[in-house]
Amino acid sequence: MSAAPSNWQSVPLSDETLAAIRFNADGLVPAIAQDISSGEVLMMAWMSPESLARTLAEGRMVYWSRSRQELWRKGDTSGDHQEVCEALYDCDGDTLLFKVVQNGAGACHTGNRTCFFTSLIEP
């Protein structure tokens, strides 16, 4: 486990904030990671209450892996970790947005900088 970024202040997940987040029937909420400098959307993954609490405490993105059914600290295997700069939730409380510094090659498991590189519109 690496140390939190030097500018991150550990933030406890308050009961009030936790109550405002609308987790789905599986106890998860979508979380979007966005590059703090460019505004580029890097990825979407899922968070559980525990992964959210750890993210806020550590200042490093921790997600919930639905396929492995376990906490997933982004970058522990790849080295491509994300440092939290801002943490927000939307007006309905059903989606989280994290503005991050992306360290390493990129956010996508394919090696791309972002997971959003395939167009729905044919060229």
How would you characterize the overall build of this protein?
The model has no long low-confidence stretch (mean pLDDT 92). Strand 3 and strand 4 form a beta hairpin. The strands form 2 sheets. Strands 2-1-6-5 form a 4-stranded mixed β-sheet, with helices on one face. Strands 3-4 form a two-stranded antiparallel sheet. The chain is globular, with a radius of gyration of 14 Å. The protein is 13% helix and 30% strand. The chain starts with 14 loop residues before the first helix and ends in a 21-residue tail after the last strand. The protein has a domain of 84 residues: Phosphoribosyl-AMP cyclohydrolase (Ubiquitin-like (UB roll)). The protein has 123 residues and is of the alpha+beta class.
How are the secondary structure elements laid out?
Blueprint: H1 15-20, E1 29-35, E2 41-47, H2 49-58, E3 62-65, E4 70-73, E5 82-89, E6 96-102
Parallel strand pairs: 1-6
Antiparallel strand pairs: 1-2, 3-4, 5-6
- What proportion of the residues is helical, as a percent range? 10-25%
Low-pLDDT residue spans: none
Q: How far apart are the first and last residues' alpha carbons, in Å? A: 43 Å
Query: What's the name of the CATH homologous superfamily of the domain at 19-102?
Result: Phosphoribosyl-AMP cyclohydrolase
Which fold name corresponds to the CATH topology of the domain at 19-102? Ubiquitin-like (UB roll)
By CATH reckoning, the class of the domain at 19-102 would read Alpha Beta
- How do the SSEs run, as a string of H and E? HEEHEEEE
Question: How would you characterize the largest beta sheet?
Answer: 4 strands, mixed
The rough form would be described as: globular
Q: Which structural class is indicated by helix and strand composition? A: alpha+beta
Q: So, CATH architecture of the domain at 19-102?
A: Roll
Rg, rounded, reads 14 Å
Task: Report the average pLDDT across residues.
Answer: 92
Q: What is the overall number of helices?
A: 2
Number of strands: 6
Strand order of the largest sheet: 2-1-6-5
Q: What amount of the residues lies in strands?
A: 25-35%
